[in-house]
Write the structure tokens for this entry.
Amino acid sequence: MLRQLREADTTFRVFGSRAHRYDLGPPLAERELAAFEAANGVRLPGDYRRFLSEVGNGGAGPDYGLEPLGTFDRDLSRPFPFVVVTDNLTSEEMCRWPYRAEYPGILEFCHQGCAIYYYLVVNGPTYGTIWEGRETFYPTGLTFGVWYRRWLERALTALHNERLVPRLRVGMTRADVLAEVGGEWEARQALYRPIRFFESADIPAQLELDEQDVVVNVRPWPFISARPY
């Protein structure tokens, strides 16, 4: 699937792909993985470990790509302390961990931009799952393998569906949009404006709907956003 995406996106339309250009670092030998685990007192999740040993170490991935193993300056020998989104915790609970840079048990391994990262839990009750965050940390509930595959699938789908965007026109109703291009769409209210944004994760355009559910603006995405969840 990564080879398919590399061939489909020769102009780097997928967000962040100009940074990694769909290249991967060389896979790691078993002795290198074992040395990292011994030095940090952890066992890497199986799917991520297999990716490192058979596919590559860092490079192509969601947003700005994967960081190579060994570039993370955290204490991995202690567990990541959270099991629910951190803005649901009390101030007393959060005061135990005042600085996110000190959160243990996670690999800060994929930069989304604006200092937001994806983190892989390698020690703790949510072991093997991915979280994201900056000030607040959110669980995705996804393992590395599912997360990475969803990025590939959604990037390929959105690239393929760019051909549908010219069929979206001002004056269409919400029902017309669904009949013309299909897909799963969601509407959300715009701040301070009497319109709603109408968006689909798989069709790379944002529509604006008026109060009668009529399209008043079609805005193609400036790049392909492929959120893994």
